[in-house]
Write a structure and sequence with these properties.
alpha+beta; four-stranded antiparallel beta sheet; 8 strands; extended
């Protein structure tokens, strides 16, 4: 996709879109730099579309993708548009492939392979001869590779013993106060003690889980995509910590607090559904004209 085509789909440049999303999230560049470990000057260059001030494409695209997810945008879409604005083509991106399967410098020489195979055959023959297995004729057959397989009388063949496959062990249930977060899509999270140190900060890949330390006093969560984060507390599951891509912060990850928050979210959803159903069942009546009597 060329730059003109990218601008046709998104009139605004990537830097402008990220800057507006950051302002809407009420986040400062210094906060983003601290949370993502991306240098402040690179964040400023991304918002200003100053590509000359950015490092190589591999790093710049990764910075823009992480920056976008931090402010609630689609990281993959931003990365594609960012490459287009840089004028990077598919051919240019493919040249960064570090290793091809047929790379001659990484394939052992043919002579070396043949020597290794010959050495293995010699060692095998020497081992069989050392064991003294058979007379001179048998040894010649072993060396020539024509040794017939030994036959076993039918009456001495033991029937195979069939044992049932062992049943898979069930995962033990979690304690009632143990909290495990699982991501259904790539999501950046920060987990820290309230008013204290950071316990974890980084991106969870799809399917990756994080177990909140049992000795954490009051761990708090910050993320821009609560809709892709689920929680497991003992035998209880919370399918999502939010209903939309909206930054949540200072959310307690203690088991009782999460359960209470989930109950409140379900109650609010049920109330909203009830109001919608009532509105659909009783639409506002309009003024209906009554025809005059003849």
């Amino acid at each position: 996709m060329g730059e003109a085509q990218a601008r046709g789909m998104h009139p605004k440049r990537v830097g402008e879109r990220i800057a507006e999303a950051r302002a809407a999230s009420k986040l400062e560049l210094e906060d983003i730099a601290e949370k993502t470990r991306i240098p402040l000057r690179h964040l400023q260059a991304i918002e200003a579309s100053n590509f000359e001030a950015l490092p190589a494409s591999t790093y710049s695209v990764g910075f823009a993708k992480t920056f976008a997810r931090m402010v609630g945008l689609d990281g993959n879409e931003i990365a594609a548009d960012f490459r287009a604005e840089r004028g990077e083509t598919l051919a240019e991106r493919s040249q960064y492939t570090p290793f091809e399967p047929a790379d001659p410098s990484r394939v052992p020489p043919t002579l070396l392979v043949m020597i290794a195979l010959a050495t293995a055959v010699i060692l095998l023959v020497a081992y069989l001869v050392w064991r003294g297995g058979g007379n001179g004729e048998e040894r010649q057959q072993i060396a020539a590779g024509t040794m017939p397989e030994a036959s076993t009388p039918a009456e001495t063949v033991a029937a195979p013993v069939v044992r049932p496959a062992p049943k898979p062990a069930l995962a033990p249930p979690l304690p009632d106060d143990k909290v495990v977060l699982t991501a259904s899509d790539a999501v950046w999270v920060k987990i820290s003690e309230k008013g204290g140190p950071t316990l974890y900060m980084g991106e969870l890949a799809a399917g990756q889980s994080y177990e909140v330390p049992a000795d954490a006093k009051d761990p708090r969560l910050l993320t821009g995509r609560p809709d892709v984060l689920s929680a497991r507390i003992g035998s209880r599951s919370i399918p999502a910590l939010g209903s939309a891509r909206r930054t949540i912060s200072n959310v307690s990850l203690k088991a009782p607090a999460l359960i209470e928050r989930d109950a409140a979210m379900q109650a609010a959803t049920a109330e909203e559904n009830a109001r919608s159903a009532a509105a659909n069942a009783n639409p506002p009546s309009g003024n209906v004209a009554t025809p005059a009597n003849p």
